[in-house]
Amino acid sequence: QPHVESADDRSFLHAMFGERSLYSLVKLTEELQGRSASNEIRELVKLLSKPHIKSLLSVHDTVARKSYDPELPPLPDDIDDEEDSVKIIRLVKNKEPLGATIKKDEHSGAIIVARIMRGGAADRSGLIHVGDELKEVNGIPVDDKKPEEIIRILSQSQGAITFKVVPGIKEEAQSKEPKMFVKALFDYNPAEDKAIPCKEAGLAFRKGDILQVMSQDDATWWQAKLEGDGNQRAGLIPSKHFQERLANNLSVSQKVLSGLRRSFRLSRRDKKTNKSMYECKRSEQYDTADVPTYEEVTAYRRKHGDRHRLVVLVGPTGVGLNELKRKLLISDPQHFSVTIPHTSRSKRHQESDGVEYHFISKHLFEADIQNNKFIEHGEYKGNYYGTSLDSVRSVLSKNKVCLLDVQPHTLKHLRTAEFKPYVVFVKPPSIERLRETRKSAKVISGKDDKNSSNPFSEEDFQEMISTAHMMENQYGHLFEKVIVNDDLTIAFNELKQALRKVETEAHWVPVSWTHS
Ligand SMILES: Nc1ncnc2c1ncn2[C@@H]1O[C@H](COP(=O)(O)OP(=O)(O)OP(=O)(O)O)[C@@H](O)[C@H]1O
């Protein structure tokens, strides 16, 4: 043909007509038309005319023609020189949300892309950016629409969505993936949060969860992922600052409420003498000061020969802290140990200094209180009793695991790089289970001086449960492990296993504990 001029075209046609497959196809067509009588042929015709075979062939043809690029709307002929350059973006939407939020600019009234969620569909496309101005969605102008209306249009559309945007000013190139991990110290559910700009974009988490913070660009809403969750998409979480403000407003009402509750039974009793010890001031009990938000953490694994983390047991009186400590000590006396308390009372003759107690003078005891040498101290019948920081150090320096039970308000003083406390909260089971399991247990009463031990009363159980509740509310964010002391053997095994894990496996600790 005269119009086939170039040598390239000619050699292409020559090669195509010389193709064996084309030859076979032509032969096949002839055969099919000529001999329609044969059963095999009829069957083949039937197979080839099935819709899915047809669509397979059609897909093949589309791919072979490379015609899978989106068909863009034609460019308008009369482009106004004054008009900003626009970008036409076509995204195919599946069930996954787009992962972008929009807002109306207060001054210009323009619809602006406010956020792109890391790892979401919009982010992965690389086509939409924060600051882009949205002009049209599927050909519908959006300038005059409210963000909610636009969201409705988006959520109703399926398949390909075409956006017309005016690109915003280019953002700084994203720095490499941030690696800040935080432990959440509160529960968060975006569905119940009135403040969040978009509930669907929120990330729900529980107290104790580890979050990887992906972006802190926004002062009120950070973007984060749950650690260890396969999901690559980040969600919105309240920033530390924002949560602190919220929580501060809340805690005023909480304080009023807690004032109405019955007070703690404050004593940790001296088992030998049944003394009430370690009273704490009411102001101290309610002094949480720092609002629990997030704590920056890092992975930590104890190296062989390193000191052990201090094991701190917390729980309401009578829940079984001493029982659990005793069982641990018996199970491995070489490994576990407890502190020796100080007292200002005089030594009895069957006692030895440094065994039952460190016996010191009242004067020295008072000086030590002044110098903050005690974790807890108290007075009973004119004598002081207390647990010193040095008594903990002494156990740890022998490379033993130190078991300590304290009032929860002392936790914040113990949370240092030196002690790295592993805080276990021992919780009572339901009141029904308390009645069943504690039938033969004795509450060692410190209320009278007669060293009496009585069975638990119904009131003891109720108080145990309400105190546990209160402790969890107020200090729950500091507990790394919660053990319900229902069946003693089960609780003990759970504790022992948790302690072994902490000694041998990597886990999260506050960043400040690792660079000292
Ligand atoms: N799981 C359990 N089942 C049955 N009895 C239990 C259980 N745990 C503890 N007990 C019993 O309950 C009583 C109180 O326990 P324990 O003295 O260990 O409590 P505690 O938390 O140390 O209390 P306190 O702080 O007042 O000294 C003891 O008689 C103990 O044997």
From TrEMBL:
<dbReference type="GO" id="GO:0005912">
    <property type="term" value="C:adherens junction"/>
</dbReference>
<dbReference type="InterPro" id="IPR020590">
    <property type="entry name" value="Guanylate_kinase_CS"/>
</dbReference>
<feature type="domain" description="SH3">
    <location>
        <begin position="177"/>
        <end position="247"/>
    </location>
</feature>
<keyword id="KW-0677">Repeat</keyword>
<dbReference type="InterPro" id="IPR036028">
    <property type="entry name" value="SH3-like_dom_sf"/>
</dbReference>
<dbReference type="InterPro" id="IPR050716">
    <property type="entry name" value="MAGUK"/>
</dbReference>
<dbReference type="GO" id="GO:0016020">
    <property type="term" value="C:membrane"/>
</dbReference>
<feature type="domain" description="L27">
    <location>
        <begin position="18"/>
        <end position="71"/>
    </location>
</feature>
<dbReference type="Pfam" id="PF00625">
    <property type="entry name" value="Guanylate_kin"/>
</dbReference>
<dbReference type="InterPro" id="IPR001478">
    <property type="entry name" value="PDZ"/>
</dbReference>
<dbReference type="InterPro" id="IPR004172">
    <property type="entry name" value="L27_dom"/>
</dbReference>
<keyword id="KW-0965">Cell junction</keyword>
<feature type="domain" description="PDZ">
    <location>
        <begin position="88"/>
        <end position="169"/>
    </location>
</feature>
<dbReference type="InterPro" id="IPR027417">
    <property type="entry name" value="P-loop_NTPase"/>
</dbReference>
<dbReference type="InterPro" id="IPR014775">
    <property type="entry name" value="L27_C"/>
</dbReference>
<dbReference type="InterPro" id="IPR008144">
    <property type="entry name" value="Guanylate_kin-like_dom"/>
</dbReference>
<dbReference type="InterPro" id="IPR036892">
    <property type="entry name" value="L27_dom_sf"/>
</dbReference>
<dbReference type="InterPro" id="IPR036034">
    <property type="entry name" value="PDZ_sf"/>
</dbReference>
<feature type="domain" description="Guanylate kinase-like">
    <location>
        <begin position="308"/>
        <end position="500"/>
    </location>
</feature>
<dbReference type="Pfam" id="PF07653">
    <property type="entry name" value="SH3_2"/>
</dbReference>
<keyword id="KW-0728">SH3 domain</keyword>
<protein>
    <submittedName>
        <fullName>MAGUK p55 subfamily member 7</fullName>
    </submittedName>
</protein>
<keyword id="KW-0472">Membrane</keyword>
<comment type="similarity">
    <text>Belongs to the MAGUK family.</text>
</comment>
<dbReference type="InterPro" id="IPR001452">
    <property type="entry name" value="SH3_domain"/>
</dbReference>
<dbReference type="InterPro" id="IPR008145">
    <property type="entry name" value="GK/Ca_channel_bsu"/>
</dbReference>
<dbReference type="Pfam" id="PF02828">
    <property type="entry name" value="L27"/>
</dbReference>
<dbReference type="Pfam" id="PF00595">
    <property type="entry name" value="PDZ"/>
</dbReference>
